[in-house]
Amino acid sequence: MLIDTHFHLDFLPDPTPFKAAPIIAQTLTPTAYLAQPHIPRHALGLHPWYASLDELPAFADAVDSTKFIGEVGLDYRFPNQEAFRRLVDLTVSSSRTHVMSIHAVRSVTAVLDILDEFDPRRTQITPIIHWFTGMSDELTRHIRAGGFISVNPRMLETKRGRAYVTQVPADRLLVETDLPREAGETLTPDEHAAIIQGIVDKLSELRGEDMTARIEETQREIL
To answer: Which long-range contacts (C-beta less than 8 Å, at least 24 apart) are formed by 201-205?
Structure first.
């Protein structure tokens, strides 16, 4: 079973058909996370577009309730490194390990620098940069630090994205849709499954190997 590691369940007008789907349901704020209890693979988020320090107490209260953190990170258009630094601190200080889905738009080096500030405790976090758009040397640094990337169709539409998915070790690749793109957009489970299969088919073509079993093995190890 392939898992969509970055899916916006709360954007759907009716999320019911997806509540048992193989997804990690990202959220944009702790408030949004707390509003949807009892969702499998539910991620606690503080998206950089909405990263108010006022949300950090709620993040702190909820961080032990889930293995999954996301969507979090940095975006050059919204400079808020202190909020990200503090949520990383809260995450590595919690009572459990976490898988973190990271938004890093023209900010990969800053994200990695902040994670490095928490060595050796950063090993409490398995970092996945979703839809990686950074530079090649940043990707190398991220992978060497134990990181993963999650691949969506838009990444595979670019020459750089296609190069990156052949550059990294096969066991550092995961799949995602980053769908729906906006609140109110509709999607059926069959449409979603076809998109995931299309990603894996393209990865297999680019790498010259069957990526389904490889990705499923990686999922079992970290998710």
So the answer is: 202/153, 202/156, 203/151, 203/156, 203/165, 203/173, 203/175
**Of 91, 175, 95, nearest to 130 (Cα)?**
175
Question: What percentage of the chain reaches a pLDDT higher than 70?
Answer: 100
Percent of the chain with pLDDT over 90: 96
Q: For residues 172 and 149, is the Cβ–Cβ distance under 8 A?
A: yes
Of 10, 6, 70, the C-alpha closest to 43 is 70
Side-chain half-sphere CA neighbours of 207 within 13 A: 23
| Residue 20 vs residues 16, 25, 175, 222: alpha-carbon distances, Å | 8, 11, 18, 20
pLDDT tens, position by position, 146-169: 999 999 999 999 999 999 999 999
Residue 11 near residue 177 (C-beta atoms within 8 A): no
Residue 125 burial class via C-beta count within 10 angstroms: exposed 0-12, middle 13-18, buried 19 and up: buried
Tell me the CA distances in angstroms from 95 to 62, 65, 67, 116, 125, one per residue in order: 12, 10, 10, 20, 12
| Cross-strand partners of 75 | 78, 105
- Report the binding-site residues: 71, 103, 130, 178
What tokens were used for 51? 């990263």
Binding-site sequence positions for a divalent metal cation: 71, 103, 130, 178
Residue 79 confidence (pLDDT) above 90: no
